[in-house]
Amino acid sequence: MEYVKAFVVGGLICVVGQILLQRTKLTPARIVVIFVAAGALLTGVGLYGPLVEWAGAGATVPLTGFGYTLAKGVMETVKESGPIGIFTGGYQAAAGGVGAAILFGYLASVLFEPKSKS
To answer: What average pLDDT does the segment 57-77 reach?
Structure first.
């Protein structure tokens, strides 16, 4: 049942993104920013945490999950270190994921040759 919940929630988040792409004039970059900011905002007001507990990876893998990770990291670091956590918490929480993305992106660029779309 855990997989079904993750699939449904992740799918619904992706459906919202697809609707925004097709029905608005928003660029993909703006939609990415909206999703990350929405994840951080919903975490800040206490709404995204319960969704993550219920849906698991379905809520943490999409872009809103990145915003959740940043906001959660900031909130935890502020509790531990005080106001300096506002500046360091997001970096500490997301460092592993960002580092992995950079590493795997680099490896893909070294191992594979790009081809033109024509």
So the answer is: 91
What CA–CA distance (Å, rounded) separates 78 from 115?
A: 46
Distance CA 36, CA 63 (A): 6
Measured between alpha carbons, how far apart are the two ends of the chain, in Å? 43
The one-letter amino acid at 108: A
> Bigger pLDDT: 100 or 62?
100
17-26, 31-40, 41-50, 59-68, range with the lowest pLDDT: 59-68
What residue type is 64 in one-letter code? T
- The residues, ordered by sequence, that sit 6+ positions from 75 with a Cβ below 8 Å of its Cβ are 43, 44, 89
State residue 39's pLDDT score: 94
Instruction: Report how far residue 26's alpha carbon sits from residue 33's, in angstroms, rounded to the nearest whole number.
Output: 11
In 3D, which of 81, 43, 73 has the Cα closest to residue 59? 43
Is the pTM higher than 0.70?
Answer: yes
